[in-house]
Structures are given as C-alpha cells and as structure tokens.
Amino acid sequence: MRVSGLATWALACVIFLAGAPVVGAAGGESAAAANGKAAEQAAPKFANDTCLACHGNEGFAAPGANGQMRQLHVVKERFEKSVHGKRLCVECHQDITEIPHQKGVERKVGCVKCHQDLWKAAEEENKTQQFARLGVVVQQIDRYMKSIHARPSMEDQSRTNATCYNCHNAHYVYPKGSPGRVEWRLGIPNICGRCHGKERDEYVTSVHGKEVMEKHNPKAAVCSDCHTTHEIDDPKLDPMRLVITRNCGNCHEENFKTYTATYHGQVSTLGYAYTAKCFDCHGNHAVQRVKDPKSTVHPDNRLGTCQKCHANATRGFITFEPHANTHDYDRYPYMWITSKFMIALLGGVFAFFWTHAALWFYREYRDRREHKERPHVLTNELPPQARNKYYQRFAPGWRIAHLVLILSVMTLVLTGMSVFYANSPWAPVVMKQLGSPKVAAVLHRTAAAVFLVLFFGHLIYLASRLGRTWKPSDWFGPDSLVPNWRDFTDLATMFRWFFGAGPRPVFDRWTYWEKFDYWAVFWGIAIIGGSGLTLWFKSAAASVFPGWVFNVATILHGEEAVLAAVFLFTVHFFNNHFRPDKFPVDIVMFTGAMPLEEFRREHALEYQRLVESGELAKHLVDVPSRPMTRGSIILGGALIVIGLTLLVLVLIGFTGSLAAA
C-alpha cells in the first residue's frame, strides 16, 4: 500500500476523535450500515484476527512506493480501544479481497466519502439523533475541506497540504477523556512539528511548551488550542487572527475579559483585526511569562513591543495596564476609585432626575385630568401691537448652534457607543454600516472637534461681553445662567407642588433645570473632553502622565458618555418635549419664538418685568410661517426619534454589560 493511499482514509480518524459511533460495526448491523452493501457483499469480510495474524506482529513492514520499508504493525489492544476498534479492517480497507493480498492494487481508504455516506444513510433512515456524533464528524469534514490543510500543496499540486494521517495515527484514534487521547494530545507539538519545524522549536522554549513537553501537563496549550483543528487557516489572515485571539480566552478567561474592555479588544470584538491582539504583545510560539526577561512584555522589553504599533510611544506606555480591572483595589486603586465614583455619579443623577420627572409628569397629568385652568394671557391685557405676536426667545445664532450641537452629540453617541458596547448584538451591524472602526474614529473625532469649537466659541462670546455690555452684577442677575439661591428655593417649591403642598413656582428667564443643563456641558467637556483628548493624543499624554492615566481616562470617557447620552435622551427630552404641557414636541428651539401665553406661563417673572419696563414689544415677532412651523415639527420629531433610538441602543448595551460583569 502506498503512503498516498492513506490520505483520504485518515480523515475518518480525525473525525472520530469526537467519539462518533461506528455505523455498521462488526458487532451488529446498524441502520446507517446500508451504505455500499453491494460492495460489501462482493468483498469477503475477513475477521480482524485474520489480518492481525500478520499485521499484529511487531516489526511487520513492507516496501513502500518510495522503495523504503513501511511499518504496517498494528497493536491489537491499542486498536480495540480506539473509536474504530469494533469495526472490521476490511470495512475501511475495502480493496483487500484476497489473503495474501493481490499485487498491483492501489491501496485506498476513503475517509471523507465513508463518513459522508454513513451520515447520508442515517438521514435517509431518520436516525440522525441516534448518530449525532457522526453528524459532528460530517461538520468537521466540511470545516476541514475549507481549511488551508485541504488546499493543494504549493510544492505538489496533486496533493493537499495535510491530511488526516498527518495529524492522527490511523489505527489509534481515541475518544475524549481516554488515556490514549491524553497521550495523543501531548504529542501534538511533535506531530505539527513534522511540517512546522521552526514553530515547533520556538514552542518548546515557551511557557506552554515547557508545560507540555517537560511536565506533561495535558491542560497546557498545544498547537490546536490556538490555531483550531479542522478549520485551521493562514494565521496572517484577519479571520484567523480573531479566532486565535478568542482561543486565548479559552484558557485565560479573566485576561481576555479585561482585554475586551480596552480599545484594542473592542475593535477585535467588532470583527476587525488591525488593533493589537494577544500574540502581538505576548508573542506567539515562544511566549514567556511576564517576569521572564525574554518576555516581550517584560518591563525592560515592553516599550519596544508597544513601538511596533505606536512608533512614537514614550515611557508612559510601560505603566499602562491592559489587563487591569475595577474590582481589585490592591492592584488597581485608581481604577477602583474611578469606577466607584462614576457608579455613584450615575446612580445619584438618575435617581434624582428620574424621580423629578416622574413626579412632574404625575402632577401635570393629574391637573389636566382635573381640568385645572392654566395661566393664560387675556387679549385685553396686551397693547394692540402685541396681539397675535410671539415672543422671540432665541436668536438665529443660538438656534443654529443648538442644531449643530445636537447633531454632533448624536454622532458622538452613535460612533462611541458602538465601540464602547462592542459586545452588543447591534454594535457590529452599526459598525458595518459606518464602514469600520477607523471610519467611526474619524467621524467621532470630527464631531468632537465641532463640539469643542462650539464650546470654546461660546466662551469667547462670553468673554467679549464681559466688560463690554455686562456689569459684574449681571452675572447674578435674572438674565444670567449662573445658579443663585432662588434656584434652590424654586426646586423646593417645585417638590411641594408635586405633592400638592403648595402652588406651582413661577420662574424667571432661566429655570433651575435649564441652568443644570447648561452647566452640565461644562462638566461633560472637562470629563469627556479631557479624557478623550488624553486617549486621542496618546504619545503626548504618555510623555507627561503615567500609563495608568489611560486606564482611568477610558473609564471616565465611556461612563460619562453613557451618563450624558441617557440624561439627554430621557431627562432633557422629558423637560422639553414629553411632559404633558409640552408633548409631543416643543419647537421653540427651532423657530426661536413661542406663544405669549406659553411664555407667560413658563417664565412669568421675566414676562412681568418686561411688561412693567415697557420692553416687551422689543421682543415680539410675527407668528412663524406655516412652512417654518411644519419644518420645525418634522426636524424636531426626527431628532427625537433618532435620540430615542440611540437611547434604546445604549440601554441594550448597558444591560448587556451588566449581565456579562
């Protein structure tokens, strides 16, 4: 029998590693054994003992196709413990019809066809559940046929790169959990090393290799644990880089979990392979323990490893903790403190404002059900020129700035949360539509730049007014957004109204919740903007700060972004659109004007002051045109729908992250 004659036969050996049942075994005829009965009837079925009379003798050999002696010895006891141990030899070696064997016959064993035919027979007889393991085998065949091993060899196109017998001994394929299987597993590095000698030599020196080759630890990683078995492919290809990275997590679960919390891991989770993987930092076949001076992540070698991707990396990169977590205070105190602070911040903000919104909704809804009249403007109270007029609350510049601001924020939320919640089922879909994380990063940073331009432009505007048109007293006057004592009394009065203990408070130009919205942007810029710039300009930041700052910045940037997004699309939307007096959409931020009745009701003190000073007429404008009103409703409604969609995505991501924690 020529060596090439075992090529296809050996696939059965690979497949039956899963412990697939033998269909048509010698001990009894199964349903699936109907396959090829004509051939079986034509060929005599020699007993295995007949074959072992020769092949059972130690040292039994015959000349091979290359003229060299080929060992044909089969150990009976070992064979009988294998997954094929109950089958007749001639069930696989169907070309054997005579003993002694006829000469000139090409020795072939068709593993692929054999198992596929057996499975087909099981399907025809509706016994696939009975032979479920055989179904696993067929799936393994399908994966193998797509692998790099099943493709034609570069040197010899007439044969594949590797077949079953290159990895498995044809007669000794053992089920999982058996001693024979453990022995075979420990030998995998040497088996793979027959073709991959250089990689085998590197592996022997690694922490994995020493565990396997010297300590005979069957739990240590061997080649197939990283590269997979039947579906192995070129490790330079992106899909295989991702597969190998996930396979590292099969043993190093906690480290893989912390890795996926970094930007490197988030991009990998989304299905893109251009960021650093485990082996990019730790090495591959020659991986060593971190404390080993030969390790690529040893403190003495770490900067050079980082500089393979980050050419301008500075010493601060060395102290970055890629596997830090927020649960271990002793090892990562800064992350622990940051995490607990953000949890308290999110919990406190939402507990207060969601309660505030719920009580507000209940009170307004109850008042409307009881048909309580709201304050309104009587026509005879207004001068003739004020009749059928609107109050202009926002000039065109502020309205344009608001629109650009909300569009930039929504872009930031979409692009940022798609990465932050990379494990969410929607994130890869969104990222595919965006193009890739690289495209998303460009969009994210562009939106961030727009946001910063608006913010600092606003500061420049305020600085220009200071000393030119504003007096120091104006900073705390009724037109100022600087909080004052009245805001706290208004808040207390509001809660009394919620519970029916007092009248609804009256407000001046700015309410306490509008002031909170305004100053929250400053807080957000400091936290989100500061951390974002730190992560954006890594090399510059690492030249000044220690590496753990990146860990802290990652937490702050993500958690504060969640706070901003959820607050904006729940609390802000409720205050301005969803409470009964405003529902379904308030368009004053788009038209710039509001009815006098609404103005007097919402900002009674400002209205009274303008009337008394005779300045009300200066702020009156015509009713917005019908096209302007219709367009504002459409635009406002569209932005609300987009915002609520983003809210749902963020909440799905948030709940998913809690479940995975």
Question: What structural keywords apply?
Answer:
661 residues, single chain, two-stranded antiparallel sheet, disordered N terminus, 3-stranded antiparallel β-sheet, 5 strands, mainly alpha, 3 domains
Radius of gyration equals 37 Å
The pLDDT mean sits at 87
CATH topology (level 3) name of the largest domain: Fumarate Reductase Cytochrome B subunit
Q: What would you give as the CATH superfamily of the largest domain?
A: Transmembrane di-heme cytochromes, Chain C
**CATH top level assignment of the largest domain:** Mainly Alpha
Q: What is the distance, rounded to the nearest whole angstrom, between the alpha carbons of the first and last residues?
A: 58 Å
Instruction: State the helical fraction.
Output: 55-70%
- Biggest sheet details: 3 strands, antiparallel
**Count of beta strands:** 5
How is the largest sheet built, in terms of strand order? Answer: 4-3-5
The overall number of domains is 3
